[in-house]
Fold this sequence. Notes:
This protein has one domain. The relative contact order is 0.20. The strands form 5 sheets. Strands 4, 6, 7, 14, 15, 16 and 17 form a 7-stranded antiparallel beta sheet that branches. It contains 16 helices and 18 strands. Mean pLDDT is 86; it is low at 1-29 and 38-54. By secondary structure, it is of the alpha+beta class. Helix 15 (318-326) packs across helix 16. The two termini are 43 Å apart. The structure holds adenosine-5'-diphosphate (ADP) and magnesium ion (2 copies). Keywords: ATP-binding, Glutathione biosynthesis, Ligase, Magnesium, Metal-binding, Nucleotide-binding.
Amino acid sequence: MGFVFSFFEETKMTHLWGESEEHLMILPAKKEERELEIQVLINSNKLKLCQRSGKAPGVGLLHAPFALLPMSFPKVYWEQALELAPLFNELVHRVSLDGDFLQQTLARTKEVDPFTRRLLDIHSKMMELNKKEDIQLGLTRSDYMVDGATDKLLQVELNTISTSSNGLACGVSELHRNLIRHHERELGLDPASVVGNTAITQHAEALATAWAEYNNQSAVVLVVVQAEERNGRPVAVVYFRAGYSPADYPSEAEWRARLLIERSSSIKCPSIAHHLVGTKKIQQELAKEKVLERFLDNKSDIENVRKCFAGLWSLETDNIVNSAIESPELFVLKPQREGGGNNIYGDNLRETLIRLRKDGSNEIAAYILMQRIFPPTSPSYLVREGTFVRDNVVSEFGIFGAYLRNKDKVIINDQCGYLLRTKAASLNEGGVVAGYAFLNSIFLT
Ligand code: ADP
Ligand code: MG
Ligand code: MG
């Protein structure tokens, strides 16, 4: 995890697609800085562009996998997710203020999961210092799938750190609009029904507004990515585009840096508490009876939030573990990790549960069990590396959110565009960069 300082002169961000999610870098707005940055990335072998560039000399960029046409999506789900976005933003904030809740809920996980322990250690140091974060910035993404059996929109997870693909998501909806416009007669579709996406500008604006709120003209926005450290001006906002995975902390130096950032006065996106609210364990705890009531006051808000919760259980619930061993295809076993590719399914899930139970190990506290959602399937053309395949697909739909608060004043609490990812119905996991899913956009019906 290196630190790249980039000052947002305008509220503009340029993004670059690399080979894996790690390498999706947000680069400085200034042209010279951006070129330097790209050079650093290429030199550090982070982007293995040249090998893959093939027939495009001097460009070396590979398109991200995408679905050829947008997915038709009922308006009612779209509206439901939009309505939920500010509620989840507020919920993240309120849960983040309850340090004891975070520490207690994750206490058993902490014993068996060193990564979560390190995050909690920083968090408890801040509690000891009674550190107050006057200005809080959350850039979130709440992910959903439609459950085919019940027609309900169910939340897969709530992301509070490195909520990626906002730039790519905007690109793909523009691409779809253009395709439909060009082939309007053959397709008979209205390009205006492709939902436009403002994720990148709204998230950039939230970062810029946070910077303004910090109120120091000479301060910069620090974007934490995986590159070399340079330069040093006061930092108004720290945006973590890395730091969500144990691999981002190869030595003690990165943990010291994370602690240093947390102790500093800069606005963190996310703060350590916001980061922890995004863990699967907290998601599971919030789904328990009476827990939402601790954090939200309005009855109908609570009802609306709860409506989108899928079945979530800790592994201490014996009868659920039995059911999962009997019918593993109906469940997903999740550790406290981000970035895709970490969940356990099917026979693996069964074997893992049997092993954990036999060992009588505390390791069970590292996981949660979740009801597997089966979205309705439809045919789609999926394009990767310039060629397409036709497949039966399912989709996952994320709504970006932004939340900026200075003491009692909520400055931004908004939904900010969306991410639609489509994958073959036969697959378990779903990340675009993990190689499973394809970027897509929404065609409202
Ligand atoms: P991560 O933080 O690593 O993205 P997720 O909880 O989003 O973890 O899980 C990764 C992927 O696994 C999702 O994008 C989705 O494709 C699949 N998945 C997760 N939970 C479920 C579920 N309950 N039902 C069906 N698929 C799921
Ligand atoms: Mg996640
Ligand atoms: Mg996810």
